[in-house]
């Protein structure tokens, strides 16, 4: 599909461009806004209509993703979202900034998400995971998505400041941290370090940003914008697929139990980051159910050209990369809706075509907090699956989606979290009953006498079918567990 911001241009050009666009862009359809690229048919129409950020439609492109997101970044470096940071100070964050202001802020923020920084911060995430289990054990009367959002909010708040998200509270937290001598390794401490270094300056242009409390508070707020609903969506869909595929759930639980037991009922940064099967499950879930439906870039200067077909793009034109459609395109992912985590093994990843898998975006504006988000999601799933199993009554329900800008959130499916102990004790009870009856029958067949079993490391009444009353007593003990 190829059309620019104005429908009048599309009316004038789409008919004549149709066959050319199909040949040049490799698309199945061309036309006006509201029509659809077809790897996922009606569902992608629904997703695209509900998640578009602006009223004007830009150009939906395939085979030009690399040019837009990386190759000609100087021309396509704007997210296309217009928020005034002077009016709303919390909007002045790295998610919505553009131009040199975005570049300088991102340069200074990127070191905050290194492996070393996340390792030092992990004790906070681990505590949030344990608190999540306590919260679930109290049986909150909420839908699963809201429960998962609560965990993501609490985890981010703890990792950032351990306080609520109001701007005034964040500023107060920054001031308090400046007076502390102890290191906490959370985001507040890292913000204070930036402030102590003074004015942020771009060496090439001389552009400067003062790291005021308002600017730092806005960067902290970006965690909540980018981290709560998308992370909750990723957790929700991963659990939804696990509920539909109990064999995969069992295999993942083996890895979960192994990690917890090796770490003496704890988790560590190294253990969680090394959970290969959980990584495969997450990657597969984010491929089928990306939290972000499409990625938008705006052409910021005249003369933008897409090389295949030499298509000229006017300044101000929005370019949409249809992430949801790409992730489900059978051209790149045969049997695209099958949940097969092994496709994202180290070997399987080699077959993935560049720019067809973008759950966190791609290129220079890829999600800055990707490592943080992934660690947060993995920790939450680790503790949840250690103590609960997951079920759903909506395995065959056709999904409906909410009207959230840029995000894909299900409305009509839910999950149930069931404590593992109840299920496992039930299994033990069943197996124990079968074992007792089998052995008891065998003993009866031998017509053994009490004398034959003297000195045995068990009592005859437990095994012998003649002692049915004792057997029933033993079985009742398991029933009450």
From TrEMBL:
It catalyses: an organic molecule + reduced [NADPH--hemoprotein reductase] + O2 = an alcohol + oxidized [NADPH--hemoprotein reductase] + H2O + H(+). SUPFAM superfamilies: Cytochrome P450. One of its GO terms (molecular function) is oxidoreductase activity, acting on paired donors, with incorporation or reduction of molecular oxygen, reduced flavin or flavoprotein as one donor, and incorporation of one atom of oxygen. Belongs to the cytochrome P450 family. Its cofactor is heme. The keyword Heme applies. It is an enzyme of class 1 (oxidoreductase). The lineage of its organism: Eukaryota, Metazoa, Ecdysozoa, Arthropoda, Hexapoda. Its main location: endoplasmic reticulum. This is unspecific monooxygenase. GO terms for cellular component: endoplasmic reticulum membrane. Its EC number is 1.14.14.1.
């Amino acid at each position: 599909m190829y059309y620019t911001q104005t429908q009048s241009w599309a009316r004038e050009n789409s008919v004549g461009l149709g066959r050319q666009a199909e040949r040049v862009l490799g698309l199945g359809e061309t036309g006006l806004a509201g029509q659809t690229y077809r790897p996922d048919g009606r569902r992608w129409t629904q997703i695209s209509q509900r998640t578009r950020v602006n009223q004007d439609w830009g150009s939906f492109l395939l085979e030009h993703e690399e040019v837009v997101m990386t190759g000609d970044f100087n021309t396509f470096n704007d997210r296309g979202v217009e928020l005034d940071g002077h009016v709303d100070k919390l909007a002045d964050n790295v998610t919505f900034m553009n131009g040199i202001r975005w570049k300088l802020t991102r340069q200074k923020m990127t070191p905050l998400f290194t492996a070393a920084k996340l390792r030092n911060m992990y004790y906070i995430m681990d505590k949030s995971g344990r608190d999540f289990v306590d919260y679930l054990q109290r049986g909150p009367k909420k839908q699963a998505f809201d429960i998962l959002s609560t965990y993501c909010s609490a985890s981010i708040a703890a990792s950032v400041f351990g306080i609520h998200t109001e701007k005034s509270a964040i500023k107060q937290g920054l001031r308090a941290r400046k007076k502390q001598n102890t290191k906490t390794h959370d985001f507040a401490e890292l913000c204070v370090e930036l402030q102590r270094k003074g004015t942020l300056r771009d060496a090439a242009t001389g552009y400067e940003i003062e790291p005021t409390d308002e600017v730092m508070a806005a960067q902290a707020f970006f965690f909540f914008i980018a981290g709560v609903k998308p992370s909750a969506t990723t957790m929700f869909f991963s659990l939804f697929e696990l509920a539909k595929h109990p064999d995969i759930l069992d295999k993942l639980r083996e890895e979960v139990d192994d990690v917890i037991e090796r770490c003496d009922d704890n988790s560590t940064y190294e253990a969680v980051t090394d959970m290969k099967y959980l990584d495969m499950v997450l990657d597969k879930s984010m491929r089928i159910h990306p939290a972000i439906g499409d990625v938008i870039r705006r052409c910021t200067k005249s003369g933008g050209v897409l090389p295949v077909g030499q298509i000229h793009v006017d300044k101000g034109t929005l370019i949409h990369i249809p992430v949801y459609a790409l992730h489900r395109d059978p051209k790149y992912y045969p049997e695209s809706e099958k949940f097969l985590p092994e496709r994202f093994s180290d070997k399987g990843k080699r077959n993935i075509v560049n720019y067809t898998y973008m759950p966190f975006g791609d290129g220079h504006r890829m999600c800055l907090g990707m490592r943080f988000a992934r660690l947060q999601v993995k920790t939450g799933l680790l503790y949840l699956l250690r103590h609960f199993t997951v079920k759903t009554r909506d395995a065959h329900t056709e999904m409906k989606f909410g009207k959230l800008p840029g995000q894909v959130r299900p409305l009509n499916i839910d999950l149930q979290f069931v404590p593992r102990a109840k299920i496992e004790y039930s299994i033990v009870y069943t197996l124990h009953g079968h074992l007792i009856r089998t052995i008891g029958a065998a003993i009866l067949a031998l017509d053994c006498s009490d004398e034959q079993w003297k000195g045995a490391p068990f009592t005859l009444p437990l095994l012998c079918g003649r002692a049915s009353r004792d057997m029933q007593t033993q079985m009742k003990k398991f029933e009450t567990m």
